[in-house]
Amino acid sequence: MKSPIERYLEELHQTFSKEKSGTVASYIPELFKANPEWFGICLVTTDGHVYEVGDTRQNFTIQSISKALVYGMALEDNGRAEVLRKVGVEPTGDAFNSISLHPQTGQPANPMINAGAIATTGLVEGKTSRQKINRILNAMSRYVGRSLGIDQEVYRSESETGHRNRAIAHLLRNFNIIESDPEPALDAYFQQCSISITCRDLGIMAATLANAGLNPVTRDRAVVADYVENILAVMGSCGMYNYAGEWIYKIGMPAKSGVGGGILAVLPGQLGIGIFSPPLDELGNSVRGIKVCEELSHQLDLHMFRSNSNVSSVIRKYFDASAVTSNRLRHSKESSLIQKHGKCIRVYELQGPLIFSTTEVIIRELTVSGPQSRCAILDFKRSLSIDESSCELLLKAWRNFHAQNHCLLFSNSSHLTLLSRYFRVNLKETELPDFRMTEDLDYALEWAENDLLSTLAPDQVTEAAIPPEGMALMQGMENGDLKAISLLLKPRSYQKDARIIEVGEPSEEIFFLSQGAVSVVVQRPNGKDYRLATFSPGMSFGEMGVIDQAKRSAIIQADTEVKCLILSKKDFDQLDHTHPQLKIKLLKNLALEFSRNLRKANQEVLVLSE
Amino acid sequence: MKSPIERYLEELHQTFSKEKSGTVASYIPELFKANPEWFGICLVTTDGHVYEVGDTRQNFTIQSISKALVYGMALEDNGRAEVLRKVGVEPTGDAFNSISLHPQTGQPANPMINAGAIATTGLVEGKTSRQKINRILNAMSRYVGRSLGIDQEVYRSESETGHRNRAIAHLLRNFNIIESDPEPALDAYFQQCSISITCRDLGIMAATLANAGLNPVTRDRAVVADYVENILAVMGSCGMYNYAGEWIYKIGMPAKSGVGGGILAVLPGQLGIGIFSPPLDELGNSVRGIKVCEELSHQLDLHMFRSNSNVSSVIRKYFDASAVTSNRLRHSKESSLIQKHGKCIRVYELQGPLIFSTTEVIIRELTVSGPQSRCAILDFKRSLSIDESSCELLLKAWRNFHAQNHCLLFSNSSHLTLLSRYFRVNLKETELPDFRMTEDLDYALEWAENDLLSTLAPDQVTEAAIPPEGMALMQGMENGDLKAISLLLKPRSYQKDARIIEVGEPSEEIFFLSQGAVSVVVQRPNGKDYRLATFSPGMSFGEMGVIDQAKRSAIIQADTEVKCLILSKKDFDQLDHTHPQLKIKLLKNLALEFSRNLRKANQEVLVLSE
Description:
2 copies of one chain form a homodimer. Chain A is α+β, with helices and mostly antiparallel strands. In chain A, helix 5 (about 115-125) packs across helix 9 (about 185-195), helix 6 (about 130-145) packs parallel to helix 9 and helix 16 packs across helix 17 (about 415-425). At the A-B interface, helix 1, helix 11, helix 12, helix 15 and helix 16 of A face helix 1, helix 11, helix 12, helix 15 and helix 16 of B.
């Protein structure tokens, strides 16, 4: 099948190929050599999928688009405060080559006009022009995921004819915005404008900015994440020369254009766009570039001031332990205690990025339900990112719970390294022992259930081995029957961690658990082990395979030292004829057990598919 | 429990109360009466929760903040093109009261400077000043959810001293930007600036803009959603006077301030902020307002150019019919066919807003997996919104499937009215019959399974009544047993839609289904009916209650005309003694059936909790 998005971009390309207005830049002869028919569209997602149509592999020079990226490098090399001291961030309403220096301080109004850009290049690490341009080329190459070079002819031409820029450089020197010889900055600036790129490169650069500075194709970092918002801010307010206001109004994405015919546009968190078409309008922006972006923004609803709130869906699923319990199988008395009192164990499965506005929804819920929650569990499996402000709010919520002797538990949070680090750094030593994170939601639930039971039924836990008459499947049996079946049961012991049942074995035995705990472990579709159930003494396992004569479908392993009583399939079958009433009793108990488990599973399917 | 967010805002309020710099506006005596200590912070979420601290109920005049809102009204009353013809959208770099008219056309540079704002008020519906201000007051009242009025003293004072604004109005008349007497526009402008609001109002206004024009507290529409992005764009590029660039750089939210001491800031889709504190800096912005917003943006990571990509989680869950099937219970032959070939029925549960960048992920998946998918089901239950570009992409994907005789099915999409409308309008008459939307995912799965079985096992469907020996629970019985049990079975018929079992009844009967279909219906936690299972002829139901002696826990109803054979609990119990071998057989079959259902349910829990 052909992707409808690819087809849409092809149609767009075809439509706007007919647009013939605009003029190729001619202030240096090399730029004027560009073929006005060249036209490429490239759209790159933040997970690294590249859509490209037309002349996306044609080389051209980056020109002013470099200003935005080099601004990021200046921030990396000097920090925000120092850069802001030298170059402002206010739009001027003037043309790109206007001088716009502050009359007293000489500070250029912003880094997107030539004066600001030369000052910015001056701030990039390196004393010589070569050091500076190497720094710039290295970073740019990470942005695009390939090694970039300089178009030497364009560079020579820019350098030879750049009288105005040379004048600007000396004015900057005069005001001490550039603090030493301005020539290296100026020369590096001419070179950075002459870096040869393609439309595909532009798209990937844009997607790298959309992806918080991480190249989504190579997964290399091109720029420190914290500075991306600053780069995008100056693009947003000053990126499109004196068309910036109209651009944000109509297209609504931070963008930067160059007189080589390129436009780079960024929809933060979502996608990057690169367009290449040399003919320019009178403001110096690519004519087709603007039209294509207008069309894309309109047709694909890309305007970033459109609100697509996803805030309230941060709580993906909510349930309490009266409806869904852990996979620790409990005896009926414990089960009914949990069912009766389980509403005070509240589970919230979260999803999506945890930022202030999503975390706020969680905090609000915890604040309201907190007093009724003996234990609240936040499951982070589906939340792939968290920011510091959310960590701080969760810490405060945790303290609220802790102060009331309630418990706020985290599960599946190990991928959110910031979260656990934040807690470990900020919790007091006296608080740390009460901070609990579990690997899986199931274990968090089990912990909370045990905690609840420790209050409700402190005397339930028994360490002694269960005799045959204490087994669930033997309930209601008379003494004679009990004696008869006891003769068939063979004791067997297992070490902790031993495999009791392996997948694929024939199902030849029913196990009655007298002491210890065993777990059924299956592989999830994603390949990870998952505890399907943990059995307590008095329960039996392995009977399903004996009944439906299927091979063993899951691993059963000993969680502790384990003692079992074994009934072989052969003996089980022979009971039909030797002790039919005993067998009927056994089968009824079995059906009862299955029925109980089936009701629990159906209930869980219902809650989980809600 | 106290919300940590509330506590955080209180701390913020306390900290910045100590900030004493800035001067209360003094160009008219009424503004200078403001108490410099007044200080309110209000934060409102897009689901209408209001956090407020300090003097959030103190009245003050809205001043220039009105410019942004009135701009939206001008757009509603004239359309975008006409408004853009009269007033530009470029930042000027000049002060708020600069005249900044285009030298040839007289067009004001943007609607946030006084000249642009007076021109904008001129565009608002109404010939007289009274008509205009009524239109403005009505709309503003919807923004805040209460009836607003004008501070008459401020208005009189503004009007008496507004010589510069009067000059501007006449210049606008001179250039025909205002096409008739400028006095009504000017007078309405003075009045709009004198509207009396509170900090709480500001917060709700901001949240209304963040919520695409819908007041999140009252659920009233304040402005057409399509224009919100334009209002926010002019706020973003020109809203903070000549501090706009630095504001977007540091704080990263579209905002507007007024000399009354208010600041309104908007994080689209997420939240609105209102701050009130009268002392202003030399650019005319509230000193505390800027500091609080800087702190909020930094502490809560609110900068809108930060990327919080949530794109790839649009596919909330994926499975195929080899792992999870519909609740239509099938005989084992059909079941194993579905298990074997079910990989070609692919289910995608979606979540979050469907916008281009999320829908792109779906389209890409469908394009790759399409050739292997006999049927793909998109479930929209967790997607609360869709935009037109996503509808168009889904239409194209649907056509790709249709062209290959594959099927793309939608379930749970009835709340996305745009989607079904879009398909009904754009599908050809020949395509329409093949377009399928089902109410529940379960029915879509059943349809796809039936469609698959119609190819794999076209002869499976039987209409004749199943005799006792055809029942699943009778399998393996000898003739004598069959005769014995047949004598106990009583036939019973039901009309379509009849309730066969009601919740709470005692469990006295086992039902063997000979003809027709019955469904188990339960109530979901959300109160909606849900089909837990549909039985086919040859299956039995009602046996779980007989086994565990519980009352009936779900409704069972006849989907068609139904014929059953009934075995009473009494007869079932007596078999223990009258026909023990028959009873053993029956119990084994029962255990087998339970075990099969339990395996299916466990498998589903595993997939659903993935």
